Amino acid sequence: MRKDEVRGLDHWIGGSPVAPGDGAYFESLNPIDDSLYSRAAAGTPADVDRAVEAADTAYRRNRDLSAAAREGWMIKASALMERDASQFADTLVDEIGSPIAKAGFETRFATSFLRAAAGVPRRIRGETIPSDAPGRVSMSFREPVGVVAGITPFNVPLIKGIKQSAMALATGNAFVLLPSEAAPRVADQLARLWEEAGVPEGLFNIVYGDGAKIGDALTGHPKVRAITFTGSSRVGRHIARIAAEGFKKYTLELGGKSPLVVCADADIEKAVAAAIFSIFMYQGQVCMGASRIYVERPIFDRFSKAFAAAAAKLSSGDLRDPATMLGPIISGRQRARVRQHIDDARGKGAEILAGGEWTGHVCHATILSGVQPGMEVAAQETFGPVTSLYPFDDLDEALRLANDTEYGLSAAIFTRDIDKALRFAREIESGMVHVNAPTLHDEPHVPFGGSKASGFGREGTEADLEIMTEWKWVSIQTDAAVGGAH
User: Where does the record place the Aldehyde dehydrogenase domain (predicted)?
Assistant: First the structure.
């Protein structure tokens, strides 16, 4: 495809495409072969300011719309998402190298989230509160915060784009999206979806560009009152400082080094299947990926052989073949990181039970054994199809090893012993825990998020109310009680 054949994506501001202020565009590449897929506006701080101002104006113009109106947008958007699922899936395949099965999961989740979000506008409720003052009526309201900024990652751009924008709109706010540079076209499709769903112009806006150059202009803008971010822990810490300085609300969903624990009494076949899904879905480019797998010593060899055999059979062919699980690593920089982690482990004595090789931009499903603390892969997030196996002797040791990390996003345990399962759920330092299931799971209404360096706050149709709205206390002194006892 020639560069002049690719239409540039302009910002979406105030309900219309808007060219970048300095006329510059950047290239988004298809990760299969790094061919040109699209061009998008390279945003400037001035572009960000224009988007936030448009959002603030639209918020003030539409803040008194009824719950029924916002409910209607969600219902219409869910129907449109269902109608256009194949178009969104095609973009996910070609823009971010998503196997079609994973792309289908994103479109189904987006539809489900929109349906769940349709109930949010009618749940934004306050309460009446007893007052110590005679004759005084005391009550509380939840009000929208105003302009919400969202920053989404490349790996699940549709899920995160829908999560962030739907909750902002459903709660009466305006929204400005800064999507990953690797996924601009998905964001453009979202803009068209919200427009067709009837969202008034200016309530949903997009500024494309390099987050390192314009991210601070967005998160630090004085009219942005809440921030929802998904990305690295390093950037999350930076955003938290900006939010604190500006007294802004924020939610951070960050990195992970998620443990999966397999006890000797586990169903090994199911545990292997869960491990395969937990680390190799979307070629390991998932924050909840089980990059550390702890197996009780009596079954360690048996599990290792079964897991390695299953990994060796994973398909890395046509991304539109439902059987394909492994696609390309997103970029040259990320490919170099995955290679470095594998090579460092190999060079320092780790054993490669499966994978370790590449076909083009596709890294084969890689399983390491004998990983030691000095290896990069031991503590750092690889964000690729690479996991490490470790033996343990009892649950005390498994918990100690699993908790020995700065991260705390997701964890899983396989056991038939309910006491072990419940103890693990209580003592693991993780925001999410799954028993006899993969580390990868999400639903629209659950409190999704992590602890420690894996995040701050929670996402979901219930949890997001904490950053998308704020409390207002109102008291009314009736005439009959004025001058009475206090």
Answer: 24-474
pLDDT number for residue 480: 62
Strands (E), 289-350: 292-296
Distance of CA 432 to the CA centre of its chain: 14
What does DSSP say about strands 386-392 and 469-477: parallel, antiparallel, or unpaired?
unpaired
| C-alpha to C-alpha distance for 403 and 397, rounded to whole angstroms | 10
Domains of the chain and CATH, by start = 3-254+450-472 (3.40.605.10), 259-435 (3.40.309.10)
DSSP 479: G
Quickly state the pLDDT bin for 20 (edges 50, 70, 90).
very high
Q: How many CB atoms lie within 10 A of CB 188?
A: 21
Catalytic machinery residues:
253
Question: pLDDT digit string (tens) for 96-107?
Answer: 999 999 999 999
| Helical (H) or strand (E) element with 160 | helix 157-170
Q: Model confidence over 373-387: pLDDT tens digits? A: 999 999 999 999 999
pTM of this prediction exceeds 0.85: yes
Report the C-alpha gap between 258 and 256 in whole angstroms. 6
Strand 147-151 and strand 174-178: pairing?
Answer: parallel
Average pLDDT over residues 188-199: 98
249 contacts 171 by C-beta, under 8 angstroms: no
